[in-house]
């Protein structure tokens, strides 16, 4: 191996993933660097602090074997990755290098992996319904093209299955093209990654997918770059090539942990639970890359998955995420233990963009009212269930008993469905009406009379008889 | 001052948005500087000998040690003049449309410098002073029409007392053309339609007055239960998903104000996009013109640079004070002040200051106060007897929904109204999810007269009655949670039913429903009175022995529930009808058991 150009040998300290150098003139903040050891190993890194007297470099990969004799070469530009349509069907590591044995990407362009903020005045408002084929999502937490909607889960819950099912089934009704999928694994176990690869292979999505894999035993520091390279690829596919891209990143909790590790190596003042005070802004710089842009055909719909440590919704990771994303899909251990798949608990879940993406001309005119009524009724039903714990089922009033029955049927017929079962939005709404119809009409507080007359199964049947 | 040429400093260290420069002797705290080859905008936050610490408002990737820092000699200022209304600005006051044009694409690139106000637009100027007039700071020199208001061009606060030497006749002028020349302490000064004001300094006024007039928001739970007044301050704390943003939109849309400043501070990009999509379509019910014409939107989304987020709130409140000085009522909504405080924390930590509670700097309370204290109802500057007001409504995003965290706690000390949003209510889709047991308003007590005068009803007495009912119902619910609702007496179950009616039919308000979205004070008062009558009239039925199961199945109950959806013009008659049907139904039920 030969090293060309100017190299510096002023390494002062190596500390975890950080290399600290004495001053080098002309170094830029965030500049990309290459580091070579005497034994010939090579590392990538980027400048975290640039000063006349001191330079701090964050090294990607494992720093084992680095010593103060290392040679550092400054590349003169910030960290960029090559992008082109050749990325489709390929597998990369967290630093954006191919790991599938294939050739390097012939670049159409080189992009800064940090991206740039989209000008809010140039964003297009997401208002197109995406059908995932899952009733609980389509019916009550509709996903919208260009939305960022995370899955809040816990260890042991089937979030990977839910994400894979969505990736397999997702379509924009009336649009022929399928979604391209950018998948990024952060600190995932090998068998989880294998599961996703098999899934993508099985439904023939591999050729329209780009995979970025950082496994549990890969360098922790590359977890910082994994989501950024994945989104850089997604931005290129969406906003340059005009594709609809679904980005799935799992598990953001591992990302945040890597961020904490880096912050503590830099001896920064910690905020809650040791996470750095800038974690909100840092997460925003990732999540906010989803969206649509005025005058460009593509879109980035973003579904990050995170496991809540200890199932705690107030933990900084889900908490800060919830403040940035446009809602959340909440997986529930209790539902899962009762055998409900997908174990989506709709009550703490939310899709903020739903209201503008549904209704007449988009899904069906009764969609919003049905969804509101389901929320209200299911909330009554869970209240009744809590009461059973205290007074027993016999102690319930007839109305409470009815709602308890409603909650059971709602979970078993509406929420629960097969891993390979795909329901259209019409099917979803019809199932909802069937379950709602066990309630007396006076309980339909969220549904107008007009909608009731048109869609209530009883009225529909009556109208049919009259018609004949 | 700005024509002076300053020496250049040299960058010695870059760490994120914090840059240290040497050879900066003579630089002042809060002075604006241009950093590096791309001339990124920055502000000096600390001085150590010849060195200055600068916070840079744009991303610093690629900036090198050894590059120059240029001084401007001026603090961070807002441009104030006609043309602000209808603009969408970033945290530094740059119009985002123009930024997009200059950037040549949808992404924000660095180093773009554009003024806030359009320089080429002509405004129709009509002078109101004559040559020879003596004028003082704040006096109106002339007016130009701007959107739905008459924009008063005032003598800037820095010229305390002057005599008019020249004044331009009525006609169309750009803001760069002087419209008057005045003599100020023996010096001739040109006055233009705009001037600059340092955003961190409150604009002066003659006297601060007690706020006494309700700021009508059309939101029932706010206006009736936890009102805010013109010139008041309120905070809206709530975890994510509790409907904070929608509540602020509703206020920005419907508030009875002349000018609305909306500061989107560290929030979602798509929320700003939503505002930009919906505001142009919304019509102000009073003026009949698009709401955007009375609004200034500041958008510094969560992924835009953190220091600019810190500046955006001060930028916004300065615009608000400027329109207040014209004798107008202004509302400023900020979403979210927590992100703003976090920006402060982030910068403080990069400056290696000693952290206090949860990593926030020790001066956090002063900093929060410096924002909320700029709210108020004032006698404006100048020789005129005019009042203007700025009401401030700040969203707070407590981490983990914990209201004991420092930003919420300090904010509570400086506001008069507190609308605690509740996750439980939001889960039930009870919106606005303002918890009626944990919220407060110190302004409510002073509004009794206002309601009688403006709605014709003694609303505050209905309010007290409703609150008493809600409180009793909440303690009964506790009991019912243990023994089941069926075990309560019929009398108590009637209280639960009546309270439920008030919750569902008064407190719940659908922001997306054409009619329900806004409720006038008259309708609010009559609606609450009508709903309260249900309890009063149903009580004799319990005494007469009508079973609760029949009462809760009454047809009139459905009519009462739907009453809020009746349009304003039909409301009075419909309410009367509903009450008379209720009476008939009640007497027939009593007759049945009797």
Radius of gyration of chain A: 26 Å
Shape of chain B: globular
How many domains, in number, for the residues of chain A? 3
Number of strands of chain A: 20
Question: What's the story with the biggest beta sheet of chain B?
Answer: 10 strands, mixed
Shape of chain A: elongated
What is the annotated CATH architecture of the largest domain in chain A? 3-Layer(aba) Sandwich
Termini of chain A, distance in Å? Answer: 86 Å
Average pLDDT confidence of chain B is 91
For the biggest β-sheet of chain A, the strand order reads 8-15-14-16-18-13-19-20
- Give helix % range of chain B: 25-40%
Intertermini distance of chain B? 91 Å
Which CATH architecture of the largest domain in chain B would you pick? 3-Layer(aba) Sandwich
Q: What are its keywords?
A:
heterodimer; A: 468 residues; alpha/beta; Thrombin, subunit H; Rossmann fold; 3 domains; 8-stranded mixed sheet; 6-stranded antiparallel sheet; 14 helices; B: 594 residues; alpha+beta; Elongation Factor Tu (Ef-tu), domain 3; OB fold (Dihydrolipoamide Acetyltransferase, E2P); 10-stranded mixed sheet; 6-stranded antiparallel β-barrel; 16 helices; 26 strands; 23% strand; globular
Describe the overall structure.
Chain A is of the alpha/beta class. Chain A has 14 helices and 20 strands. In chain A, the strands form five sheets. In chain A, strands 8-15-14-16-18-13-19-20 form an eight-stranded mixed sheet, sandwiched between helices. A six-stranded antiparallel sheet of chain A has the order 1-2-5-4-3-6, with no helix packed on it. Chain A has a two-stranded antiparallel ribbon with strand order 7-9. In chain A, a hairpin with a 5-residue loop joins strand 3 (31-36) and strand 4 (42-51). Chain A starts with 10 loop residues before the first strand and ends with a helix. The radius of gyration of chain B is 28 Å and the shape is globular. The model of chain B has no long low-confidence stretch (mean pLDDT 91). Chain B folds into four domains: 8-75, Beta Barrel (Elongation Factor Tu (Ef-tu), domain 3); 80-102 and 205-443, 3-Layer(aba) Sandwich (Rossmann fold); 123-193, Beta Barrel (OB fold (Dihydrolipoamide Acetyltransferase, E2P)), CATH 2.40.50.100; 456-593, Orthogonal Bundle (Bovine Mitochondrial F1-ATPase, ATP Synthase Beta Chain, Chain D, domain3). Chain B is α+β, with helices and mostly antiparallel strands and 594 residues long. At the A-B interface, strand 4, strand 10, helix 6, helix 7 and helix 10 of A face strand 1, helix 1, helix 4, helix 6 and helix 11 of B.
């Amino acid at each position: 191996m030969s090293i060309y150009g100017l190299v510096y040998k002023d390494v002062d300290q190596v500390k975890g993933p950080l290399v600290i150098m004495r001053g080098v003139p002309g170094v830029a903040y965030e500049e990309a660097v290459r580091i070579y050891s005497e034994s010939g190993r090579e590392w990538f890194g980027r400048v975290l602090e640039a000063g006349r007297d001191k330079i701090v470099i964050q090294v990607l990969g494992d720093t084992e074997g680095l010593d103060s004799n290392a040679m550092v070469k400054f590349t003169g530009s910030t960290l960029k990755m090559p992008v082109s349509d050749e990325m489709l069907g390929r597998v990369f590591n967290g630093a954006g290098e191919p790991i599938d044995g294939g050739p390097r990407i012939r670049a159409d362009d080189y992009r800064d992996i940090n991206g740039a903020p989209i000008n809010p005045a140039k964003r297009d408002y997401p208002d197109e319904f995406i059908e995932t084929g899952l009733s609980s999502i389509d019916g009550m937490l509709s996903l919208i093209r260009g939305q960022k909607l995370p899955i809040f889960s816990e260890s042991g819950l089937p979030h990977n299955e839910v994400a894979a099912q969505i990736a397999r089934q997702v379509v924009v009704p009336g649009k022929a093209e399928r979604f391209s999928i950018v998948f990024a694994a952060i600190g995932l176990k090998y068998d989880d990654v294998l599961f996703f690869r098999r899934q993508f292979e099985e439904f023939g999505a591999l050729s329209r997918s780009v995979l970025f894999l950082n496994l549990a035993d890969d360098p922790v520091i590359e977890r910082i770059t994994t989501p950024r390279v994945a989104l850089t690829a997604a931005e290129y596919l969406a906003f340059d090539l005009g594709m609809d891209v679904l980005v799935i990143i799992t598990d953001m909790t591992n990302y945040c942990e890597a961020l904490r590790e880096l912050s503590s190596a830099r001896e920064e003042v910690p905020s809650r639970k040791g996470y750095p005070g800038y974690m909100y802004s840092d997460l925003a710089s990732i999540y906010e890359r989803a969206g649509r842009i005025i005058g460009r055909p593509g879109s980035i719909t973003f579904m990050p998955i995170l496991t809540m440590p200890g199932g705690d919704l107030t933990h900084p990771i889900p908490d800060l995420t919830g403040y940035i994303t446009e809602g959340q899909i909440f997986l529930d251990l209790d539902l899962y233990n009762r055998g409900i798949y997908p174990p989506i608990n709709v009550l703490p879940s939310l899709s903020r963009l739903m209201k503008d993406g549904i209704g007449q001309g988009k899904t069906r005119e009764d969609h919003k009212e049905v969804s509101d009524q389901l929320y209200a009724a299911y909330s009554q039903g869970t209240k009744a269930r809590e009461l059973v714990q205290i007074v027993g089922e016999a102690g319930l009033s007839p109305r409470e008993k009815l709602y308890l029955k409603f909650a059971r049927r709602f979970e078993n017929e509406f929420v629960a469905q097969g891993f390979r079962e795909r329901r259209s939005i019409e099917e979803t709404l019809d199932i909802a009406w069937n379950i709602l119809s066990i309630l007396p009409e006076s309980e339909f507080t969220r549904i107008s009379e007009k909608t009731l007359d048109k869609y209530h199964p009883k009225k529909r049947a009556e109208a049919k008889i009259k018609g004949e | 001052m700005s024509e002076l040429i300053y020496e250049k400093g040299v960058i010695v260290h870059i760490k994120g948005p914090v840059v240290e420069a040497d050879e900066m002797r003579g630089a002042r705290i809060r002075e604006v500087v241009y950093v590096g080859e791309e001339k990124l905008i920055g502000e000096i936050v600390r001085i150590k000998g010849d060195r200055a610490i600068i916070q840079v408002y744009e991303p610093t990737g690629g900036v090198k040690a050894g590059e120059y820092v240029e001084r401007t000699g001026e603090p961070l200022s807002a441009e104030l003049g006609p043309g602000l209304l209808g603009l969408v600005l970033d945290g530094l006051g740059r119009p985002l449309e123009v930024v997009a044009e200059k950037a040549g694409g949808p992404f924000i690139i660095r180093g773009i410098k554009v003024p806030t106000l359009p320089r080429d637009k002509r405004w129709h100027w009509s002078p109101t002073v004559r040559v020879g007039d003596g004028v003082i700071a704040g006096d109106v020199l002339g007016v130009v029409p701007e959107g739905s208001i008459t924009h008063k061009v005032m003598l800037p606060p820095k010229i305390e007392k002057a005599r008019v030497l020249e004044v331009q006749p009525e006609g169309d002028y750009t803001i760069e053309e002087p419209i008057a020349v005045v003599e100020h302490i023996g010096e001739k000064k040109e006055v233009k339609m705009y001037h600059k004001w340092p955003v961190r300094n409150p604009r002066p006024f003659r006297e601060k007055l007690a706020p006494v007039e309700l700021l009508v928001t059309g939101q029932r739970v706010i206006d009736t239960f936890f009102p805010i007044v013109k010139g008041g301050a309120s905070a809206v704390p709530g975890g994510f998903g509790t409907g904070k943003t929608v509540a602020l939109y509703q206020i920005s849309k419907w508030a009875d104000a002349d000018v609305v400043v909306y500061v989107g501070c560290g929030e979602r990009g798509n929320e700003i996009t939503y505002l930009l999509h919906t505001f142009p379509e919304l019509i102000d019910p009073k003026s009949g013109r698009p709401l955007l014409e009375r609004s200034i939107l500041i958008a510094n989304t969560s992924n835009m640079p953190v220091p600019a987020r810190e500046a955006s709130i001060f930028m916004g409140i300065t615009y608000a004070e400027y329109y207040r000085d014209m004798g107008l009522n202004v509302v400023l909504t900020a979403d979210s002040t927590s992100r703003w405080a976090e920006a402060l924390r982030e910068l403080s930590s990069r400056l290696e200051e000693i952290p206090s509670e949860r990593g926030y700097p020790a001066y956090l309370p002063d900093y929060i106060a410096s924002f909320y204290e700029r709210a108020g109802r004032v006698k404006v500057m100048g020789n005129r007897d005019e009042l203007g007001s700025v009401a401030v409504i700040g969203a707070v995003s407590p981490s983990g929904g914990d209201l004991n965290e420092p930003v919420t706690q300090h904010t509570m000390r400086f506001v008069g109204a507190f609308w605690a949003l509740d996750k439980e209510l939001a889960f039930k889709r009870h919106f606005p999810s303002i918890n009626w047991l944990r919220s407060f308003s110190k302004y409510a007590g002073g509004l009794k007269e206002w309601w009688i005068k403006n709605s014709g009803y003694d609303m505050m007495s209905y309010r007290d009655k409703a609150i008493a009912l809600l409180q009793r119902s909440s303690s009964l619910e506790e009991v019912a949670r243990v023994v089941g609702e069926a075990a309560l007496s019929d009398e108590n179950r009637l209280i639960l039913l009546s309270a439920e009616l008030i919750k569902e039919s008064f407190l719940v308000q659908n922001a997306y429903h054409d009619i329900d979205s806004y409720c006038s004070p008259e309708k609010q008062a009559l609606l609450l009175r009508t709903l309260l009558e249900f309890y009063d009239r149903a009580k004799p039925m319990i005494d007469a022995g009508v079973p609760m199961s029949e009462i809760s199945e009454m047809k009139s109950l459905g009519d009462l529930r739907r009453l809020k959806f009746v349009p304003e013009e039909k409301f009075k008659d419909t309410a009367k009808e509903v009450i008379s049907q209720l009476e008939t139904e009640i007497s027939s039920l009593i007759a049945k058991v009797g």
